[in-house]
Amino acid sequence: MVTIVDVARAAGVSKSTVSRVLDERLPRSHSATAERVRQAVAELGYVRDPLASGLRRVGTSTVGVVVPRLTDTVMAVFYEEIAAAAASRGLFAVVATTDDQPETERVAVESLVRRRVDGLILTTARIDAPTPLGQAGAAIPHVLALRTNGTSAASLGDDRLGAHLATRHLLDLGHSRIGLVCGPSYASSARDRHAGYCNALAEAGVPIDDTLLAGDSFSMEAGETAGRTLLDHPDPPTAIFAVNDNTAIGVMAAAHNLGLRIPEDLSLVGYNDIPIVSRLPVPLTTVRVPFQPIALGALDLLHDAGNGNPPRTLIAAPTLIPRRSTSAPGQSGRPLPVTATSKSA
Questions:
Q1: So what CATH class is 62-157+291-318?
Q2: Quick check: 203 and 235 in contact, CB under 8 A?
Q3: Phi, psi of 182 (to 5 degrees)
Q4: Among the residues of the chain, which ranges form H helices?
């Protein structure tokens, strides 16, 4: 088995020099010595043992990931991206859930710290609220992902832009009465999607009607309740933008129970592009969040935090994915059947 001592001998350097060159936490060196070390690694086929390296640093090469719940497909998908990105760097990701409760989060964080994780990625941030790190305090490197509290390092999607794209899509189709199914007020993702919706309406000269806003959670149940509220309105919206796909699915259920068809009677846009929405009976138009770049960014920021660098925010751009759940007001989104006459034409 090739060891770090073999690499050092072949490169003509000390063992500590090899360790520094191969330490992914440090900026990549392009010196002649570093290139000689990397050439020796390649020629000898040396494979670094991340666990042994972590133990030498009094760590475990383990990253703790804190999410509200894994029954939320968004959080499950994002955790898988974090785990894959961590594995590519010789790290192992472990997850803890909090049910989006600060006290439960504090307990989860302290449990992960006791297990000697080297850092934390938290998806549970609350606007203008400190991260509940408990006794760990600022001693443990930590970053936020998907949400921000406005002060800590964070890797996010551009939620304002995504909501603007969703609302602009409905406006371009000819809708002017566009409802919004909101999320919890403490989540920056929900707040920014609300802001993006308002910005798009304002740019189009469409007044914001507060009676077309409903909802306060990210769940399907909350989406169904909010959808029923909006669709029972005396002058209901012809289109709805829901701040995530779960609430959009809830709106679909409410529309179905009222005998409404999507998109003939109601156009609908979601957010996140979780796997199921493209396979619904009416595939959902939604905004795709770039989970992989956000996960990679979170690990980069965690690396920065471990080296004492000041916090910064990384923002990745989302993409609108049009599907069959949206059409012009009063028009079917399904393609017309092809007739013999149209074929011959």
A1: alpha beta
A2: no
A3: -85, 170
A4: 4-11, 15-22, 32-44, 50-56, 73-88, 102-114, 159-173, 188-203, 220-231, 245-257, 291-306, 340-344
Chain-centroid distance of CA 268 in Å reads 21
Q: How far apart are CA 24 and CA 63, in angstroms?
A: 15
d(CA 261, CA 141): 50
DSSP 272: B
The full DSSP string for 97-123 is E-TT-HHHHHHHHHHHHHTT-SEEEES
Question: How confident is residue 135, by pLDDT bands cut at 50, 70 and 90?
Answer: low
Residue type for position 279: R
CA angle 328, 332, 338 (to 5 degrees): 125
Q: What is the pLDDT of residue 133?
A: 78
What are the pLDDT digits (tens) for 57-112? 446 789 999 999 999 999 999 999 999 999 988 889 999 999 989 889 988 998 89
Residue 66, helix vs strand vs coil: strand
Name the one residue in this structure whose structure tokens are 């921000």. 148
Specify the DSSP class assigned to residue 29. P
Comparing C-alpha atoms, which of 188, 132, 142 is closest to residue 299?
142
Specify whether the CB–CB gap between 190 and 218 falls below 8 A: yes
CATH for 159-289?
A: 3.40.50.2300
Alpha carbons 90 and 100: distance in angstroms, whole number: 29
Which amino acid is residue 15, in one-letter code? K
Residue that is written with structure tokens 């666990």 in the block: 51
What does residue 65 show for φ and ψ, rounded to 5 degrees? -120, 125
Six-digit token string for 298 = 């979170």
pLDDT digits (tens, 9 = 90+) for 165-222: 999 999 999 999 999 999 999 999 999 999 999 999 999 999 999 999 999 999 999 9
Query: How much is the pTM?
Result: 0.78
